[in-house]
Amino acid sequence: MRIPPAVTQRAAVGLMWALTILTLGVLLFIIAFILANGLPHVTWTFLSTSPESMGRAGGVLPMIVGSLWVAGLAVLISAPVGVATAVYLTEYTREGRLTAVIRFGADCLAGIPSIIFGLFGFVFFTITLGLGFSILSGALTLAIMVLPTIIRTSEEAIRAVPKSYRDVSYGLGSTRWQLVTRVVLRSALPGISTGVVLSVGRSISETAAVMLTAGSALGFPHSVFQSSRTLALHFYVLSREGLSMPNAYATASILIIAILLINLSAYALMRRFVAKVV
Amino acid sequence: MDVKIQSAGLNLWYGEFHALKDVNIAISPRAITAIIGPSGCGKSTLLRCFNRLNELIAGVRTSGRILLDGEDIYGGTVAMTRLRKRVGMVFQRPNPFPLSVFENVAYGLRVHGMRQGAGLEEAVEAGLRATALWDALKDRLHGSALELAPEVQQRLCISRLVAVEPEVLLMDEPCSALDPIATEHIEELMRALAEKYTIIIVTHNMQQAARVSTETGFMLLGELIEFGPTPTIFTNPTDRRTEDYVTGRYG
After folding, report:
1. Which distant-in-sequence residues (6+ apart) come within 8 Å of B142 by Cβ?
2. Which residues of A touch B53 (CB under 8 A)?
3. φ and ψ of B71, to 5 deg
């Protein structure tokens, strides 16, 4: 017996709605669960003081500062390299063996688990280069980790720049560099910033890779050569070692809100930029 | 007679495809020359040889010579940026950058090193005056160019071009995206510009070629079949294939 098309159509729509609601539901449940358990413990004192007795009491100020340092520095290192790579791949070379190798390399990097980056960073930056457990080691490790994201998103944004802009720019006698700096990067900026923001989010929430490179010192970081515990790692240590579940949830709440804020401000920035240019 | 651009034994291949076959053409200065022919005959390709824009495409090979004021533009000593400043191009679709009106016209000037203050404003104004846009746009120089009507956008693209003071304007079907009234306006503009510039227009529209040009070349399958004064090409062509095309037997 054949099922009438109208029935399969309705069933398909219903199924897709159900799955969409399920996906959103899981996300909302996680956020609500963390915030419900954590927000009551997020006070001004919690935000503005250092932890006491291993985090059982006190606040998370050093972790907030450490997270910002590590993530900010990682993206600051990674963005110029990634964007330059994307420009090279799209504008300065024709498709060939070399571009295939670079892309394959970037894809491989994207597929490596973060603990492997952590191990590499530990062996290379921390020990071989003698940087020790430090914000710098962590940032360099994360920079390599988010590089593929920045390359890929930048590449896509640059490819989306209409070909006609290239024709016009070259037709007016511009050099390739002028074309790239005056037209291509400008038009691709919203797309590139998306990749950069995604990378900030990924850096700030990374745990395994920073544990082995930035270390887990509880003190307030005064330079990039000092070890610093990030928010994500602090959450992990607090819950794993059963030090204080309320403080763990509070830390996670701060992390979730920070990521939401980063994404929202990025949206706002992008929209303002697009509105101004177009 | 004077010659602005001359090609001699010009051949071009896209990979294995032989797109231009031994083209010899002489373009008169300060006049409009039209290149007509059916789709795929190589007329746009020929146009893009004059400013070497074909070379952006992978696998293009060219042989033969093109002389601009007697100097071989495919010779090793020619700087591409300088050549393209002298020989500019207007494209099929109006293609302003997603910038302001002012920045669009200033683009070429800035590319060639002119800075804010040092005559930039005056040069932008001159560019806009050349296409009769100044009065309409002088109060919205900093508004986006993408909000303008298609005809105005195409004029703006011509302003952007003449601002850098080229010698030759290559027009690749400049009216194909415009309505008949806008087309008429652009044709008037072309006639005015021809007093100062050498214009080569590629067009699908035979009536347009007949209206604006003084000389016309007919191309078919990569060959320049016939070249001569526009009235002769349209009323008394020598080659049978030209006659069949201009009378509408194919194409």
Report:
1. B100, B101, B102
2. 167, 170-171
3. -105, 130
What local confidence, expressed as pLDDT, does residue A275 receive?
53
Q: Please state the φ and ψ torsions of residue B23, each to the nearest 5 degrees.
A: -85, 125
B114 within 8 A of A186, measured Cβ to Cβ: no
> Which residue among B88, B93, B144 places its CB closest to the CB of A172?
B88
Collapse the DSSP code of B72 into the 3-class scheme (helix H, G, I; strand E, B; otherwise coil) and give the result.
strand
| Neighbour-count burial of A271, counting CB atoms closer than 10 A to its CB (0-12 exposed, 13-18 middle, 19+ buried) | exposed
- Tell me the Ramachandran region of residue A124: left when phi exceeds 0, alpha when psi lies from -120 to 50, beta otherwise: alpha
Mean pLDDT of A23-47: 93
State the pLDDT at residue A273: 62
Question: For B76-90, what is the mean pLDDT?
Answer: 89
Mean pLDDT for chain B overall = 93
Question: What's the token pair of residue A95?
Answer: 């498709």
> What amino acid is encoded at A187 in this protein?
S
Q: Where do the H-state alpha helices sit in chain A? A: 5-38, 44-48, 61-87, 97-111, 114-121, 135-159, 163-171, 176-178, 185-205, 208-211, 231-240, 245-277
Residue A278 has pLDDT above 60, yes or no: no
What residues of B are in contact with residue A94 (Cβ under 8 Å)?
58
- Rounded distance, CA B19 to CA B222, Å? 5
B 165-194 residues with CB < 8 A to A: none
Q: State the pairing for strand pair B215-220/B198-202.
A: unpaired
Q: Could you tell me which residues come within 8 angstroms of residue B58 by beta carbon, excluding any fewer than 6 positions away?
A: A94
Read off the pLDDT of residues B189-233 as tens digits, 9 standing for 90 and up: 999 999 999 999 999 899 999 999 999 999 999 999 999 999 999
* Complex confidence, ipTM: 0.90
- Judge: B53–A167 Cβ closer than 8 Å, yes or no: yes
Q: How far apart are CA B186 and CA B192, in angstroms?
A: 10
What are the DSSP calls for B8-25, one per residue? EEEEEEETTEEEEEEEEE
> Distance between CA A4 and CA B213 in Å, rounded?
64
Residue B27: pLDDT over 80:
yes
The pLDDT of residue B240: 94
Residue closest to B103 by CA, chosen among B173, B171, B159: B159
A-B interface: how many C-beta pairs under 8 angstroms? 65
